[in-house]
Amino acid sequence: MRILIFGPNGSGKGTQSALLVNRFQVAHIESGAIFRDHAKRGTELGKEAKTYTDRGALVPDSITIPMILDRLNAADCAKGWILDGFPRNPSQAIALLDGLSKAGTPLDAVVEIQVDREIAKARLLGRRTCPAGHPNNLAIPGIQPVGEHEPYFCWKCGAELIGRSDDMDENAIDIRLNIYFDAENGTLAAVQRVHDWCKKSNTTYVTLDGSAKIDQVQAELCQGLGLT
Ligand code: ADP
User: Fold this and answer.
1) Residue having the nearest C-alpha atom to atom 16 of ligand 1
2) What pLDDT does residue 86 have?
3) pTM assigned to the model
4) Residues labelled catalytic
5) Domain 2-224: homologous superfamily in CATH
């Protein structure tokens, strides 16, 4: 199963991807997480990427495109993957569709989570990270952390939560959302290209309302993908 998932920053695509990955035991390829992992390990790539991620800018295509295409060739991707956070502009979309077509491993389905910019922004400001990976968000009922002020604690395991550096900066959030909602050169332009490809190749394309509750979005996602 090879699934591409689109959605504005804060739409819940990471959460939905994680649920699918868990259920189907496929690899979760999340471009932002790969950059954060490099930054944490202090690699050259990580140091360079952080100069972009911290201000909400895209890491240059010359770094991102080969990194993702290589990652999709790794052994753990052989039985499938969920790709989350890539492509984010038209050149990345073209590179992905071409790369997959050359490899003979086309997309099986594409999911687009739609939410308003205002909701997305509130969720980014409210997002807190649990060291164990449990989703926590001050703006989402059901996964609200415990506490009245910083530091908050995980609703599930009680661990102390931290905020991502790019989520703590409102200016960086606005830049990320501008990139997503740019229908000419940004992610919505990539969405359009991939949507056109799906129509041409008769590939499943599922559109979801990301403002609904997590379980409901998940149920609609499974229904759209024809899974029970
Ligand atoms: P969010 O979706 O909340 O913005 P991500 O974890 O997906 O968070 O991405 C964090 C950052 O990593 C982005 O703001 C950007 O700097 C970088 N990044 C992630 N994916 C890409 C991509 N496809 N192309 C370029 N930069 C990317």
Assistant:
1) 53
2) 98
3) 0.91
4) 13, 88, 127, 164, 176
5) P-loop containing nucleotide triphosphate hydrolases (3.40.50.300)
